[in-house]
UniProtKB/TrEMBL annotation:
EC assignment: 2.7.13.3
Pfam families found in the cross-reference section: 7TMR-DISM_7TM, 7TMR-DISMED2, HATPase_c
Gene Ontology CC terms: plasma membrane
Gene3D superfamilies xref list: 1.10.287.130, 2.60.40.2380, Histidine kinase-like ATPase, C-terminal domain
Species assigned in the record: Alcanivorax hongdengensis A-11-3
GO terms for MF: histidine phosphotransfer kinase activity; phosphorelay sensor kinase activity
The protein, known as: histidine kinase
Transmembrane segments: 176-196, 203-219, 239-259, 271-289, 295-314, 326-345, 357-375
CDD domains: HisKA (cd00082)
Length: 629
């Protein structure tokens, strides 16, 4: 009766004739389709009451998009020519929520097989990522089969019939290609993770995040996650959209770093910050939206990401950032493929055999192109670094040339000033000789003139000495010196001054102390220090010269202590500045260059010079630090 009905009813598609020479047969166009909008119909109702409502399919790949309806499919097989051979019905789209096959049992009833990616993997008749059903080819004549499909995601079907040989070849080729795909992604993930650990450049970390999202998404889309990782927890498959958020957020951070938006294009950097905020809000909202609305939201965010980053890459490239060219090429192709994949899931575009593999093709394309792009980025940054180094070298040479010119101008100026000052000094000297036999009442006037002459001569010679020390290119020669004997010789030279002012001066420098210094310049520094101590000490005051050795640090400190007027903290900060004078310049004998000269000489001997004072009226100490001989 069933055979006769199938043969004469115009409502049924022609039975699929199985032949021994065929390895694979597409059966999409041999199916009839019935939509159950309320998802309440039973198999008996579909076979009898609503049998006339079936419509013939016109495609081998069936695409119903996102729908709440239940889809019923029916087809018939005629296995008379392959009696006893093994044939299999294979649904290659592995992310259908619920798929139920009603196969004839040969007794007028049906066997029921319930599978789907929301059902435990162990319920499947065969351990395969796709939905594989073993067909009973021993039944005679055309046999009717029914498929019931339900899901909160996109309902796409790619049904095929394979004999044993065809199924093995299909599985082998697919496993090999997908193995290469996942192997490539995992290798690139580990490689970029190691690059991040080695280089500490976060662009590699963001790329690792992107690859992680791609792998997780594809494990869900391919069915490998349910097959190998969480076979008893199919609910995880409902959260495949997590991969799209991981990819989008990693892509945003990767783009900010790779395109150097913060440094080169701050306006676009702010745009991506707002995009990340939008992405975060969408991510949080997805946890509260039930499927399929969470799927719709993630799909819309994917489409928005496509438009945003395609536009961003082209814009940055057009504005002259050459390193963005491979970025544009990588993401343009990848995002275009994802765009087509998303539209295929939405049912806007036809769902073909190649559609499920578009994310794989795009991911491999991105891996290859971004690997090249990272290399190109390194070359670009290296070229930019060399260019900056050349510019810096050029600017440095120009700066040094300017400094040399300033030094020449300074020397010329000093020579001119010294010449111009020497002329009135000579006039003063001549006037002094002419007026030396004058009236005694002019003695004070001529004394003042002589003092002014000496001061002019002093400032000229001291200034020239200071600038000569500052400008010399080579450090003075150093040798072993004994500071105690140098101080002793200086004290003998100052004996008259010390005696006239009734000062007490103690030389407590160790006679065994030997330091490395240029002896004439060390003598000059010590002379400056002693002159300052004597000048600012009150009559009957005390001056003490001490030494202290730090063997571990291999240096010695010589201190010249007086109990004179001391210095304030503000004065201590400026005391070594050229032309700084403590007190009123009009009432001081110095020129404000002696301590500045002393510090220059000490530093050129690898020594140090500094001053300490408890405060005004509490004494002053000048310290000299030199390496031990």
């Amino acid at each position: 009766m069933v055979v006769l009905l199938l043969a004469v009813s115009p409502l049924w598609a022609m039975p699929v004739l199985l032949k021994s020479g065929d390895d694979a047969i597409r059966i999409g166009e041999h199916m009839d389709v019935l939509v159950d909008p309320e998802s309440k119909w039973t198999l008996d109702q579909v076979r009898n009451q609503f049998a006339s409502r079936f419509n013939a399919s016109d495609s081998d790949e069936l695409n119903f998009g996102f729908t709440d309806s239940t889809i019923w499919l029916r087809f018939s097989l005629d296995a008379r020519q392959v009696a006893g051979d093994s044939w299999f019905l294979v649904e290659r789209y592995p992310i259908l929520d619920k798929l139920t096959l009603y196969a004839p049992d040969g007794k007028g009833g049906f066997l029921t097989y319930k599978v789907g990616d929301t059902r435990p993997f162990g319920q499947r008749p065969m351990n395969h990522r796709a939905f594989v059903f073993d067909l009973n080819t021993k039944l005679k004549g055309p046999q009717a089969y029914f498929l019931k499909v339900q899901g909160k995601g996109a309902l796409n079907l790619m049904p095929m019939l394979y004999d044993a040989k065809g199924l093995v070849e299909y599985t082998y080729v697919e496993q090999m290609l997908l193995g290469l795909f996942y192997g490539s992604l995992i290798i690139m993930l580990i490689y970029n993770a190691l690059l991040f650990v080695s280089l500490r450049d976060r662009v590699y970390l963001y790329f690792v995040g992107f690859l992680t999202g791609i792998i997780y998404f594809n494990l869900n889309v391919n069915g490998f996650g349910l097959q190998y990782l969480w076979p008893d927890t199919p609910k995880i498959n409902e959260y495949f959209w997590l991969g799209t958020y991981v990819c989008s957020s990693s892509l945003a951070m990767y783009s900010r770093r790779f395109l150097q938006l913060a440094e080169r294009f701050p306006r676009y950097d702010r745009l991506l910050k707002h995009f990340l905020m939008l992405l975060g809000g969408s991510f949080v909202l997805s946890w509260f939206l039930p499927p399929p609305w969470s799927y719709h939201l993630s799909t819309l965010m994917t489409l928005f990401t496509v438009v945003l980053f395609s536009w961003l890459g082209w814009t940055v490239w057009r504005q002259g950032f050459r390193v963005a060219r491979l970025y544009v090429l990588a993401w343009s192709v990848f995002l275009l493929l994802i765009f087509i994949f998303a539209l295929g899931n939405l049912g806007t575009l036809p769902f073909t055999t190649i559609t499920p593999y578009l994310p794989h093709i795009g991911a491999l394309w991105v891996v290859v192109m971004l690997s090249l792009a990272l290399g190109d980025r390194i070359r670009f940054l290296e070229h930019e670094r060399k260019q900056l180094a050349q510019d810096a070298q050029h600017n440095l040479e120009m700066h040094l040339a300017d400094i040399e010119q300033m030094n020449r101008d300074k020397s010329t100026f000093l020579q001119y000033i010294s010449h111009e000052l020497n002329t009135p000094i000579n006039w003063i000297g001549a006037a002094d000789s002419l007026g030396s036999d004058g009236d005694s009442k002019d003695v004070d006037v001529w004394a003042m003139v002589r003092k002014g002459q000496r001061r002019l001569i002093g400032i000229v010679s001291t200034s020239l000495r200071y600038f000569d020390l500052s400008d010399r290119e080579q450090a003075p020669l150093v040798s072993s010196c004994q500071p105690m004997w140098i101080v002793d010789a200086l004290l003998r030279e100052q004996a008259a001054t010390i005696e006239s002012r009734n000062l007490t001066l103690r030389n407590r420098v160790s006679p065994n102390l030997q330091v490395r210094a240029n002896e004439p310049e060390l003598r000059e520094v010590l002379s400056i220090a002693l002159d300052n101590a004597l000048r600012f000490s009150a009559d009957k005051g005390e001056v003490e010269v001490t030494s202290q050795v730090d063997v571990n640090a291999a240096h010695a400190d010589i201190g010249i202590h007086d109990h004179g007027r001391g210095a304030s903290p503000e004065q201590l900060e400026r005391i070594f500045e050229p032309f700084f004078v403590m007190g009123s310049r009009h009432h001081e004998d110095g020129f404000g260059l002696s301590l500045a000269m002393a510090r220059v000489m000490m530093e050129q001997m690898d020594g140090q010079l500094w001053a300490e004072s408890p405060g005004l009226g509490q004494g002053f100490t000048l310290y000299i630090r030199l390496p031990l001989a």
